[in-house]
Design a protein that fits this description.
Udp-n-acetylmuramoylalanyl-d-glutamate--2,6- Diaminopimelate Ligase, Chain: A, domain 1, about 15% strand, alpha/beta, globular
């Protein structure tokens, strides 16, 4: 992900800056256990769990969060963006980044061989400086 301010994230995700519009971040996480100091946490509501319940844990390290419910009290020095639907906001952010960045996206799907295929593609394209391989698996809903 390119480095973005929370003001840019709000614009791209269709949200409103609550605070910290000038705070910058360069990665997105949806799992509070994977938060890094430079990340923005999207509090996604799932079938079993609501990311809002992990907000205090995530904000202990993250630069800020995209939420559907503004935390009270507001954490000092953090970027907070309010949206109606965090899943739709994350999709809008991804779409906006893809439209603004000139890159080729390669997706590998299936039930077997994804990691091997990903590694083979990475080996074939490693001469490009801007190649990034992702290790995340996203379950189909």
């Amino acid at each position: 992900m390119p480095t973005l301010t929370f003001a840019q994230i709000a614009e791209m995700a269709g949200g409103t800056v609550v605070q910290g519009g000038d705070v910058v971040t360069s990665s997105v996480v949806i799992d509070s256990r994977e938060v890094k100091p430079d990340s923005v946490f999207f509090a996604i509501k799932g079938e079993r769990l609501d990311g809002q319940q992990f907000l205090p844990q995530a904000l202990a390290m993250a630069r800020g969060a995209v939420v559907s419910q503004v935390p009270d009290p507001l954490p000092e020095g953090k970027g907070i963006v309010k949206v109606d639907d965090t899943t739709a906001a994350l999709q809008a952010l991804a779409r906006s980044i893809r439209e603004r960045q000139p890159f080729t996206l390669i997706a590998v799907t299936g039930s077997a061989g994804k990691t091997t295929t990903k590694e083979m593609i990475a080996a074939l394209t490693e001469f490009k400086n801007d190649f990034v391989k992702d290790h995340a698996e996203v379950a189909a809903s």
